[in-house]
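Appendix C: a fully annotated inverse folding record. The material below is reproduced so that readers can follow the format used throughout the book. The structure is listed first as tokens, followed by the designed sequence.
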């Protein structure tokens, strides 16, 4: 049981890492470089059937294996998205809990739900069109309402070099100069009064 779980976990980790690696620009550059090398080698092999078979076989095997890895990673991502949406639906008071497991419905049942939301959209569009309910002015108002309680950051203004030197000179005039302390060293060879108890 533990071995099966560890194998499944290993395959999930491998699939997700492989999907990320294949989607990176380095993977594309590597694949493009291999195709260029294969094309450059064509004249050396007289563009033979073996030369063509190499690229066909290589790409077919890689594509065949990557389909399963990408599908596994996509299944996990879609399941995570479904769970997040289910949590949002279940936590909202006004939403129907029947939508939590909507992916298990048939297509005809989904069409009924879709008609319900289409009707809601039509009713809201009659009351307030999309252009007025989602305008730039509304976005500015929403932004101001959202950040009304947040204190504004004050950034110090940059001073020109002339003003900086003037401010330094003014602070230098305001601060009094410290009196110079004179170090006195005792002269050697003098008498010292010592009291004997």
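Designed amino acids, in order:
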């Amino acid at each position: 049981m533990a071995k099966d779980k560890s194998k499944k976990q290993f395959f999930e980790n491998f699939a997700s890492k492989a999907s990320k690696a294949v989607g990176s620009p380095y993977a594309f550059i590597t694949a493009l470089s291999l195709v260029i090398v294969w094309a450059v080698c064509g004249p050396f092999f007289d563009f033979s059937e073996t030369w063509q078979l190499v690229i066909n076989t290589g790409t077919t095997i890689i594509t065949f294996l990557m389909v399963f890895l990408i599908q596994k990673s996509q299944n996990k991502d879609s399941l995570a998205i479904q769970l997040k949406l289910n949590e949002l639906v279940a936590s909202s008071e006004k939403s129907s809990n029947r939508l939590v497991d909507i992916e298990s419905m048939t297509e005809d049942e989904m069409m009924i739900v879709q008609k319900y939301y289409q009707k809601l959209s039509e009713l809201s569009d009659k009351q307030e069109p999309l252009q007025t309910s989602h305008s730039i002015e509304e976005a500015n108002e929403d932004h101001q309402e959202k950040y009304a309680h947040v204190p504004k950051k004050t950034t110090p203004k940059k001073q020109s070099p002339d003003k900086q030197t003037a401010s330094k000179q003014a602070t230098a005039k305001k601060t009094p100069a410290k009196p110079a302390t004179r170090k006195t060293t005792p002269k050697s060879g003098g008498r010292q009064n010592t009291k004997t108890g």
